[in-house]
């Protein structure tokens, strides 16, 4: 007999929810989307109808009061993550919160403490890390296929600058490219190296017409052992999202590291070999991983502490960019 599926509630009708996360949850094995809430009931009803969601609420509070909801997904603007994560935890709901988890390390710590006190799971929505290709990459690194890691290079850029009213361009709401997409290569480097950075230096382009958020940033994140991540991120540049892991004896290349499920390449012994990966939905895998932990009361693969550590690096990057200094962690 298959286990009873967990019921999810969605706080808000954000694009990432409608395009990716809701379909991913609906196509997962252990979950179903039961309700969606918006501060505009008509908007919630319209989205529910479009996505075949049974229940629509005209406020986030109503959804949290629904006793049938097991898990809440929070795709709200960054400055609302803390409030609604804590409120969801206090309502006894498990939580998947969009990245970045918070506006800073202190907020992330407070959110993790609230979840722990309520006895609920809190997970940050970095879906890419659940795709099996990253386990394959870690296995290649562990096997010595590229020798010792000498550096990691990553980027995530896109051009949405014409949408002036986008929430990404509101400084007080946690707007900017480091929050929105720079968090990906930072997280990937930490995950692949299995250690935390010691310093960060970032140069950024802050746009007056976009509420002074960083529209482009380039950075160096230093780790122990003289290994570093070099990265750039932007919201006013052509789209790309590659990742390169450079070793003493080879290279691992991901032309599309954070979006989709493309194959990657191993360059070693004078040969460039394409490594095929399963064509699976990382959003569904993310939902099922959280559900499995909830059902079996087992540890998350990425605990809230991981999100706290990532926010610490983001804090350092933003401070470095604003103050034009190298920030030690």
From TrEMBL:
Alphabetical UniProt keywords: Oxidoreductase
SUPFAM superfamilies on file: Glyceraldehyde-3-phosphate dehydrogenase-like, C-terminal domain (SSF55347), NAD(P)-binding Rossmann-fold domains (SSF51735)
Signal sequence region: none
InterPro entries according to UniProt: Gfo/Idh/MocA-like_OxRdtase_N (IPR000683), Gfo/Idh/MocA_domain (IPR050984), GFO_IDH_MocA-like_dom (IPR055170), NAD(P)-bd_dom_sf (IPR036291)
Segments forming domain GFO/IDH/MocA-like oxidoreductase: 136-253
GO molecular function, one term: nucleotide binding
Start and end residues of each Gfo/Idh/MocA-like oxidoreductase N-terminal domain: 6-125
Similarity annotation: Belongs to the Gfo/Idh/MocA family.
Alphabetical list of PANTHER family matching this protein: OXIDOREDUCTASES (PTHR22604), TRANS-1,2-DIHYDROBENZENE-1,2-DIOL DEHYDROGENASE (PTHR22604:SF105)
Name of the protein this chain belongs to: Deoxyfructose oxidoreductase
Organism listed in the record: Paenibacillus albilobatus
Gene: socC
